[in-house]
Amino acid sequence: MPTIVLSLGGSVLLPDIDRPNIKPYISVLTKISSIHRLFVVVGGGGTARQYISLARSFDADEAFSDEIGIMVTRLNAMLLIGALGQAAWPSVVTSHTEALCAAESGKIVVMGGITPGQTTDAVAAVLAERVSADLFINLTAVDGIYSADPRTDPSAKRFDTMTPCELLSVVIGQQAVAGVNTVMDIVAVKMVERCGIPLFVMDGRDPSVLDSLLESERPVGTLVTNDGKIPFPLK
Ligand code: UTP
Predict the structure, then answer these.
(1) Residues above pLDDT 90, as percent of the chain
(2) Is the CB of 114 under 6 A from ligand 1?
(3) DSSP 230
(4) Ligand 1 atom at minimum distance from 179 CA
(5) Position 83 pLDDT exceeds 70
(6) What's the whole-model pTM score?
(7) How far is the CA of 235 from the centre of ligand 1 (A)?
């Protein structure tokens, strides 16, 4: 059975506690897990940023703020497990090895953050390497990787396909502080470069787009790969 690791941004799944987008994900994740070994790494979203800014108002250092962020990612992960019900391994795993063991159950394995100084994209990228994933998918609040921030720069262009090395040059120069919302963290990109597993970055705000991976040759998004092979539709 092919293996997929999904990095599901908190800004996609639960932008805010009163704007959940969890339910629409249940059927598509369950469908994918019937034909793939599936791991989902959940982000912290707006709630993590709110907690982190509160911690900073008490002069907390960045590593402490990261720990707060990790707790929120795990809280979101637990919520997703509750929504998935029997389809999911019943607890939030807290290490890559634990994820590998839990996957023996055949259920969807869900986790959040692990270590200060990174984001859940990095957790997912390391997991992709650890579980020998066939594909690493990053579901985020933009529809791919752009040459610049499309929210502030109208001349920004979306890449259809790029190499990990090219992605690295896009992310170098991003800020590295707790709660910052960047295209992808540098640790994640270094991992993608190291393991050579294809990465697909796509807009996750509409869960039906994920569904289209099962049908379509080439959904909208950026494929990061060294060999240019298109890994769709998922079989
Ligand atoms: P996220 O992975 O959610 O970061 O972790 P994000 O870039 O805000 O992603 P979205 O918005 O969910 O898509 C939230 C914060 O938790 C801490 C970091 O401070 C991060 O910014 N964190 C998370 C860690 O320190 N280590 C981890 O392994 C994961």
Answers:
(1) 75
(2) yes
(3) -
(4) 21
(5) yes
(6) 0.94
(7) 31
